[in-house]
User: What shape does this take?
Amino acid sequence: MFKRTMWAFVSVALLFSTVSVADTFKNTKTGDVLHGYLTSKVVSGKTEAVTQEKGIVMINTMKWELTADRKGRNNKVIVIVHEGPMVRQIETDALKNALVESADVGPLFILLELDTPGGRTDFARDIASAIHTIRRRCPVITYVKSEAQGGAISAGVAVALAGEKVFIAKNAVIGGATSYAVTKDGPTEFKKAYGEEIGAKFQSIWRGFLASTAEQGGRPGVLAKAMVDKDIEVIEVEKHGKRHFIEPVNKKPGDKVVHTWSRKGSLLTLTGEEAVACTIADKNADSRQEVLKEMNAENAEIIVSDAIQKAAAELDRVEKRLKKIKTSIDRQNKELELGLPKPKWMKTVRQMRVNVKYMITMARKYPDLGLDVEALRRELNSIEAHYNKAK
Assistant: This one.
């Protein structure tokens, strides 16, 4: 009844937009100028804009020139902190909702602080996609910290690279982004879990996702690939005074090799300083305050979202409640096996029915519980059949 299944998959839908955030709106027909920010509300093709001049208005963004200049934005920064593995649906949904809600109040930018060993690649993909969507109307900055987890590892790389700007602590690391399937035996390489052919496809999709995410931010996609595939070697060459990151097979006569960033046989993992040196990250910052200073937001109001923490606490409460209910059901089953007078028997079965119905409701609402809904339904059907027969 408490069968737990967890899987990880990746698919690519990388139609990420690079449209700038709108803070100044100029009507292309009338020349009218407004200052403000866009929200997530869209009605009949028009987007809600909160402006200084006219308050809330609905505009067709195709008819306005949009300029990102912070004019009309509120002097606040909303901080979202994700610490720990990315393995819970409820926390993933909470983070995505927090991004939307944060952008809707028009902050200077959203700061997503990360300290994660990674987790499910599908969750990381969803978060990265959500960040790119939000960036169309509000800047999202990522900051890789080094606390309990040490940085942004594995699936966490995708989330870190989705930021408009990427800051990283000098003692943090980023990389080691190979993908795994989470099976009953624990994390397992895709090729071992699904076979050589299917596993190779999964790996190729994840590798492409990371590369595309990096390139959307003007970062070397080949370095992101090397974080996924240990067979990829990356060198930095100088050509006509410009830096290029390539695989050795693509080196041309006259290219001057400056540095070897990744060698075959191991996944690429970079220190904070190395990440900046190779342009995977923009700047080093050893504190939130340093990030704010670099972003010219030292005097902004700082609001720390607790959405993820509340979601985790909610799930913990539900898990404790379910543990008590399971204990109650086990006790009720033992009572029925001992034999009870019919009135007592009927009452006990009714209580069991209520408990199992509650578990089915929770299983649907909280996928993270890992409850087998079909098994619960069968159990409920059995209880009701026995109850109806005894009436």
About this structure: The chain has three domains: 22-67, 74-229+267-305, 309-390.
